[in-house]
Amino acid sequence: MRKAIINRNGTLYRDKQECLDQIEYLERKRVSVYGIEIVHLTANSAETSMYKTLWFHNQDHVYEQSRTFIAEQMAGIWNYAEIKI
């Protein structure tokens, strides 16, 4: 059974819907988002690519950009993400 949130060594990885819900929550609470790293979780690691990582240098339009990045980049094996706050 697929889990919406996976905790690996203190790092929370969320599936696509949980990520979108978390961004919504962070926007309501006005919490800064510093980055998003989309990963492919294997039995032993979280693999990523430079094309699946987004860092924010400022908070202008951060929530909108986060939602767009998640919607466009989370597909196939790239099915979990860490939101860096």
Q: Are there runs of 5+ residues with pLDDT below 50, and where?
A: none
**Total number of beta strands:** 6
String of helices and strands: EEHEEEHE
Overall morphology: globular
Account of the 3D structure:
This protein has 85 residues and is of the alpha+beta class. The chain contains 2 helices and 6 strands. The chain has helices at residues 16-29, 62-73, and strands at residues 5-8, 11-14, 35-41, 46-47, 53-55, 80-84. The strands form 2 sheets. Strands 3, 4, 5 and 6 form a 4-stranded antiparallel sheet that branches. The longest helix is centred in the N-terminal third of the chain and has 14 residues, at 16-29. The chain is globular. It starts with a strand and ends with a strand. The mean pLDDT is 96.
Topology:
Elements: E1 5-8, E2 11-14, H1 16-29, E3 35-41, E4 46-47, E5 53-55, H2 62-73, E6 80-84
Antiparallel strand pairs: 1-2, 3-4, 3-5, 3-6
Helix pairs in contact: 1-2
Q: What are the main properties of this structure?
A:
alpha+beta, two-stranded antiparallel ribbon, 6 strands, 29% strand, globular
Concise account of the structure shown:
With 85 residues, the protein is α+β, with helices and mostly antiparallel strands. Helix content is 31%, strand content 29%.
